[in-house]
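Reopening this ticket.

The earlier resolution said the output was attached, but the attachment link was broken on my side. Pasting everything inline this time so it's all in one place.
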Amino acid sequence: MKDFLFVFRNDAQTMTSGSPEEMQALTKRWMDWIGSIAAQNKLTSHGNRLAHGGKVVRPDNIITDGPYTEIKELVGGYSIVKADTLEEAAELAKGCPILTLGGNVEVREISVM
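Inline output:
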């Protein structure tokens, strides 16, 4: 089996909107989806959210604040799963709750160096 990275992207506002009850229900859907992948022994690293702040290192060793959430789409988190093929990994991603919010899951094979 190979490792694949799921990168979760969505509109910044969508990821933080909703009532406490809606957020709780969404969290449960995420946990159920991740749990179903784990139950198949295909989860390498569980769904990790990324903090809002950070730094960006640019050429010439320039460090700036970022990333900026003013952009339309932002990376909200990631997971690493095991699958035999890219197609199988993409099938696992189909159940991701972010898709119900208009977001997307980028699926990339991790190449070992």
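Reporter confirms the inline version is readable. Residues 21 and 51 are 22 Å apart (CA to CA). The radius of gyration is 15 Å.
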